[in-house]
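Sequence, please.
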């Protein structure tokens, strides 16, 4: 064979043919054509061993270890009370304090019963709007929500109560990994790849918040219109709750959406799900891979309340009229829950042998017994995907959440951040769901916590240790423009609002390592700018560290590094051509991993 002036021998011809076939194969593979042609490479589930079904009818509270929680002084305030719960293990301390299903008086060893409270019972209702209706009707006295969802739920309660009467009095714990976004693992490497995806979740509740939170922090648009497809944004399909979201994700029935760009209706697959336990377990085990934009990928937990470890506290609230009528009752309940949670935090066997069984009976989900709830309370990694994860609050953590430990205004507290940040995001995306936000100072009544100052805890407030390997991948990479005077690294008062935004991000996502990158425009000496950009990034870090007097959420252990790049890494498509482009390049980049 001759190509031009070159005569090829048989060996060279074979080599050329193999090279050409290789190029064709690679091209077809990248385009996803092979996946479509070969059904064995399309979405498939890994071989997994199904969880053993546990029979709830075989569990008897009489056979469980008794409560090991010392009851507080007895109270004579013993009203008929119903507390609304979710299927959520952050409430383990409440369940243990009551003693399980039925009235607290049915469990003579329970902390509440020992403290003279015998008429309190628990009802699981995952739809907080139904809990709120029951609160307004006097059928429930204390109801559940999350810190990030509290703005919309409290607004709904106040509407029915005809005034700003809904008051937050307590938090029993945090979601710690179980509330999550599960999707193609490539999103873990580059969050921007999620643009144009379709996510099923319960809009606008806590798992939706996880996705919106992550998207906003990465400056990715989200499309709140569930009838429209936006190729540049994350799109949503609604579900009634976290279980239905997981079921819709597994079924992967195509959804019809109108393309915003073309105006035409299109069929779209469901690419991801935002849910919580046991929805995360169902999703990963029953649909372990997705075909995303023509390529088959393993699914992965993209982001969760493990990284955003202070984003989603459990919240308990009630009608202030009733709360003030039963102050002794409320304080006694809070003491019992704090003590139960302290026991759970410090005694692994107590959770395993007693509380997980009480949770199973209270949640009453077929086939999910003590072993299931104990495993996913602590969180596990299965087939490379972390699943589950909750933690509970002792009294020290409750004080830390509401800013009482360091005498911070509630507006700057962790609760204030979660309440206000997510309320504002919801109001921007779905203004009809939250026309106004009640100021956080008006939705809390911390007098009950303040009046039990003698209540103490031995276990310290939770703090990320970063001892093991991080989950890998970038959680957030975001640009923040901070203006400095020429040649100066001193922060100006005009920049405090931007710094507060970064502070809120770092506190919500307390289980992430932090890197800061300083950048400048191209004006002046490049070497000087290089030094100046690093000094400016250091100034930002020092301000952030000083903004957390507890040292629990923002501290040196989180710092991965501070770099200064001067003018050498301008924004994409930015060439410092005018004042606007130069200003955009004077920035600090925050990277959380």
């Amino acid at each position: 064979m001759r190509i031009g002036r070159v005569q090829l021998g048989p060996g060279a011809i074979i080599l050329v043919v193999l090279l050409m076939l290789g190029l064709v194969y690679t091209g077809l593979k990248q385009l996803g054509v092979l996946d479509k042609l070969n059904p064995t490479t399309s979405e498939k589930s890994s071989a997994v061993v199904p969880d053993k079904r546990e029979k709830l009818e075989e569990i008897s509270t009489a056979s469980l270890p008794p409560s090991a929680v010392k009851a507080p002084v007895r109270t004579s305030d013993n009203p008929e009370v119903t507390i609304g719960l979710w299927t959520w293990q952050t409430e383990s301390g409440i369940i243990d304090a009551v003693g399980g299903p039925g009235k607290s008086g049915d469990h003579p060893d329970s902390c509440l019963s020992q403290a003279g409270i015998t008429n309190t019972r628990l009802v699981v209702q995952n739809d907080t709007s139904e809990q709120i209706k029951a609160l307004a009707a006097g059928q429930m006295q204390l109801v559940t929500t999350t810190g990030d969802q509290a703005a919309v739920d409290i607004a709904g309660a106040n509407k029915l109560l005809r005034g700003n009467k809904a008051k937050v009095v307590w938090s029993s714990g945090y979601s710690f990994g179980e509330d999550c976004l599960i999707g193609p693992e490539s999103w873990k490497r580059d969050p921007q790849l999620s643009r144009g995806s379709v996510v099923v979740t319960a809009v606008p509740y806590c798992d939706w918040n996880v996705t919106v939170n992550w998207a906003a922090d990465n400056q990715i648009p989200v499309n709140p219109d569930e009838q429209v497809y936006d190729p540049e944004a994350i799109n949503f399909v609604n579900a009634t709750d976290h279980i239905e979201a997981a079921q819709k994700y597994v079924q992967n029935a195509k959804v019809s959406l109108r393309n915003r760009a073309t105006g035409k209706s299109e069929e779209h697959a469901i690419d991801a799900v935002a849910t919580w336990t046991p929805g995360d377990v169902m999703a990963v085990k029953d649909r372990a891979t997705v075909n995303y934009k023509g390529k088959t990928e393993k699914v992965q937990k993209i982001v969760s309340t493990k990284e955003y470890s202070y984003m989603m506290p459990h919240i308990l609230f009630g009608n202030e009229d009733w709360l003030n009528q039963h102050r002794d009752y409320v304080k006694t309940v809070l003491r019992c829950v704090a003590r139960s949670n302290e026991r759970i935090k410090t005694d692994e066997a107590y959770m395993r042998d007693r509380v997980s069984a009480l949770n199973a009976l209270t949640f009453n989900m077929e086939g999910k017994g003590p072993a299931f709830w104990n495993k996913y309370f602590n969180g596990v990694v299965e087939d490379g995907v972390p699943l589950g994860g909750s933690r509970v609050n002792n009294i020290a953590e409750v004080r830390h959440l509401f800013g009482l430990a360091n005498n911070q205004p509630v507006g700057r507290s962790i609760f204030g951040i979660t309440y206000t940040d997510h309320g504002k995001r919801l109001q921007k995306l779905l203004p009809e769901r939250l026309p106004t936000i009640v100021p956080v100072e008006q939705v809390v009544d911390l007098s009950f916590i303040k009046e039990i100052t003698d209540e103490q805890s031995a276990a310290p407030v939770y703090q990320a240790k970063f001892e093991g390997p991080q989950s890998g991948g970038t959680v957030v990479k975001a640009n923040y423009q901070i203006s400095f005077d020429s040649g100066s690294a001193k922060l100006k008062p005009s920049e405090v609002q931007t710094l507060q935004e970064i502070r809120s991000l770092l506190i919500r996502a307390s289980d992430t390592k932090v890197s800061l990158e300083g950048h400048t425009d191209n004006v002046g000496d490049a070497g000087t700018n290089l030094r100046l950009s690093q000094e400016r990034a250091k100034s930002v870090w020092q301000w952030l560290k000083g903004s957390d007097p507890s040292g629990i959420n923002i501290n040196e252990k989180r710092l991965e590094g501070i770099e200064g790049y001067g003018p050498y890494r301008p924004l994409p498509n930015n060439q410092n051509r005018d004042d606007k482009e130069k200003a955009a390049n004077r920035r600090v980049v925050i990277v959380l991993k």
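Residues 29-42, 44-50 have pLDDT under 50 and may be disordered.
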